[in-house]
From TrEMBL:
GO terms for cellular component: membrane. It holds the Pfam family V-set. It comes from the Eukaryota. This is Ig-like domain-containing protein. One of its GO terms (biological process) is adaptive immune response. The keyword Signal applies. Residues 1-21 form the signal peptide. One of its GO terms (molecular function) is signaling receptor activity. It comes from Oreochromis niloticus.
Length: 195
């Protein structure tokens, strides 16, 4: 039987208003750590800051880091669990979240801030967005679900169903959609679809 938290973590990965090249699924256990690499293409001028943002379950800025300065966090309780290596001016950095909790489950992405002298500063999303699933115990997902969740996302608008199922993606080739009552995952090149 699927727990209610399993339905909460199932969601529609695809996002139509922001163009990111890759969405990566990260599965961790409570108490572990995760590294979120953030990177954009080399450009001039270089970024002067970066945000780590959470979306979907809890929309908020997790942290902000100015070039050559320490980072600030949106929630002071998270300061001891988060570290940043690198600098926005290098066009890449790594953000580590340690002592993970189940409520850290969410979608995360970095947004670099670049000066634009003729108008408002430009905000550029990183190359990769992450869906972080944090669970307790040995297995965060039952085996049929975890074997499907590999690969990238694609744009589609599936209709949620009452129990987990798979179906062809409406706009991508070789893609399987895993739907629950809450929403859907879209994965490219799944290992195997459950019967």
């Amino acid at each position: 039987m699927f727990s209610s938290s399993l339905f909460v973590m199932c969601f529609f990965f695809c996002q139509f208003d922001k163009a990111r090249s890759e969405i990566r699924f990260l599965k961790q256990h409570e108490g572990e750590s995760v590294v979120l690499p953030c990177e954009i293409e080399q450009r001039d001028p270089a970024p002067w800051g970066v945000y780590l943002k959470r979306t979907w379950l809890n929309n908020k800025d997790v942290l902000f880091k100015y070039t050559k300065e320490d980072f600030t966090v949106g929630n002071s309780a998270d300061k001891s669990r988060i570290s940043v290596s690198g600098d926005p001016s290098f066009h890449s950095l790594n953000i580590t979240i340690s002592q993970l909790k189940a409520n850290d489950t969410d979608r995360y992405y970095c947004e670099f801030v670049v000066e634009n002298p003729s108008s408002a500063d430009e905000k550029i999303p990183s190359k990769t967005e992450y869906f972080l699933l944090v669970g307790a115990g040995e297995s965060v997902l039952p085996p049929p679900l975890s074997s499907l969740l590999r690969g990238s996302s694609c744009p589609l608008r599936p209709a949620p169903v009452a129990s987990p199922t798979t179906s062809p993606c409406s706009s991508c080739s070789q893609t399987t959609v895993l739907c629950t009552a809450a929403s859907c995952f879209c994965t490219v090149n799944p290992i195997a679809a459950p019967a």
